Amino acid sequence: MTPPRFLPTDALVALLLALAAATLYSATGLGRIYGNDGAMLAKWTAQPELAYGAYHNTLYLPAAGLLRHLLPGQLLADSIGPLWLARSLSILPAALGLAFTFACCRRLGATRAASIFATTLLAVSPAMWFFGAAIEVHALHFLIVAFCAWVTLVAPWQRPGLALAITAAAFVLPYLSHQSAPTLGPGWILLVQCARRRRGPPFAWRTLLGIGAVLLLALGFGHMLVQWQRGRGFSLDLGDTLHTVGVWRRTFHPAVLNDALLAPFAVLVPLLVMAALRRDIDGWLRGTAGLTLLPLLACVAWWGIPEHGGYLLGPAFLMAALLAALWTTLPRRAATIGAAAAIAAQALAGWHDVREFDGEGFQLTDRVTRVQQAIGERGFVLSCNDNAPPITIWLPAVQELNLGDLLAGGLDQPVATLLAGSRTVLQLLAANTTFVLDRSYTHRTDAPQRLHEFMAGFEALLREQWQVEVRDDPSWPLWVLTRR
User: Fold this and answer.
1) DSSP 476
2) What is the C-alpha to C-alpha distance for residues 61 and 42, in angstroms, rounded to an integer?
3) What is the Cα–Cα distance from 191 to 448, expressed in whole angstroms?
4) CA 441 to CA 146: how far, in whole Å?
5) This prediction's pTM
6) Cα–Cα nearest to 300, from 240, 251, 260
7) Do residues 140 and 89 touch, judged by C-beta distance below 8 A?
8) Sheet holding 398-402, edge to edge
9) pLDDT tens-place string over residues 85-115
């Protein structure tokens, strides 16, 4: 079966879809931080000299460096001020990933109209919209996987050796953008078969197993490259990954399936089930989607962290491809009416999800305002949270010390002992007659109980030497402390 030609009109449509998505995500950008990595990524992109080079998703910081040189400052995210780069590193990858998703749908045989519909439905899903508007790594991973899928589908599979070399080279990249990449492996073998069948006779199972071995080597090389980038040596050691999995794993609860799949992808889910059951849709495509998405969903459920659907965004191009194939089989009138209704319902769910999260408070600009009101344009802020990057990004003359770094490995020590060993804390306290304690850590119900106990002891010590002015707030409660 000959693959459909990707015409100039398709290239224009892909570009317009990307432009529309980038405009949407930029206009609805989140004013608060999501998760525990968001504040770090915001800090590292705004203050690259403080970046942690051994960050486990190793493609993020190089991508930020490249984008810093390519983009005029605040081109896409002017309203977010100094965090324009971190915001753009979600907006642009999400938008470009959707362009490649459309291209994949077309390459897999879907009509142009069906491909537009499926890509749009994915674009306004709560998960895609959210991570296009938030500061996180998932949009970049989505772009990398969609790009690699497109490379796989356009590779010259009538010349298997060359096509496999091209595909394997591209397949190294997903491991650099996210550590969930190994779950892509089994499904990618079937994606190769989908590509091959549009160029010539399908591969035998023995050949597919050989292709799988090559893809496994590509994943292994990607892991070794990540290890090398992190300063761990060019090795296959899985210690860091296993440690992360073990430390963060939570007990399974059925609600994780709703939080990881049903709510984040909303209208897509029942349509995907419908497509999976349709025998008039290519079985290899259905197999590719099932063998990619289901194992990943099982891993997320086992780990117990739904991540607002972010972990399923990587191979989300397959959701769109399967849906485009479904819509291609429907009568035009029914497909048009159904598409309009589905997009409207999906956009409503996506809008509600983004606005509800942002409406809960913790706006970064509100924090800046409250600190300014407390100590003006210069001074010292002491904090212990991971829901805001340093205030210095907005107020260069205000120094912030986050106790979270100090406490990382010392929560079992007495308060006085730990503080006595921190010359930085003691020096800053001695140098300032007035400072601010950001107590937003009291709102973090997911923080270890020992941290709350430690900070309670620290606050008791402060009250002994400082006069405390309490300035409560639902998001950013502060203490303004003046030396007695």
Assistant:
1) -
2) 11
3) 43
4) 37
5) 0.94
6) 260
7) yes
8) 398-402, 379-383, 434-438, 478-483, 466-471
9) 999 999 999 999 999 999 999 999 999 999 9
- Within 124-204, residue ranges assigned H as helices are 126-133, 138-154, 160-171, 173-177, 185-197
Q: SS3 of 481, please?
A: strand
In angstroms, rounded to a whole number, what is the distance separating the alpha carbons of residues 477 and 261? 34
How far is it, in rounded angstroms, from Cα 341 to Cα 66? 40
> What are phi and psi for residue 118, nearest 5 degrees?
-65, -40
Residue 396 CB coordination number (10 Å): 11
Instruction: Give phi and psi for 286, each to the nearest 5.
Output: -60, -40
Are 471 and 480 in contact by the 8 Å Cβ rule? The answer is yes
- Among residues 143, 3, 2, the alpha carbon closest in space to that of 66 is found at 143
Give per-residue pLDDT as tens, 372-406.
999 999 999 999 888 899 999 999 999 998 887 66
Which among 438, 454, 137 has a CA at the least distance from the CA of 311? Answer: 137
Q: How far is CA 125 from CA 25, 131, 234, in A?
A: 12, 10, 39
Calpha distance 122→101 (Å, rounded)? 9
Confidence of residue 416 (pLDDT cuts 50, 70, 90): low
Q: How far apart are CA 368 and CA 365, in angstroms?
A: 5
| Cα 126 from Cα 264, distance rounded (Å) | 5
Strands 398-402 and 379-383: parallel
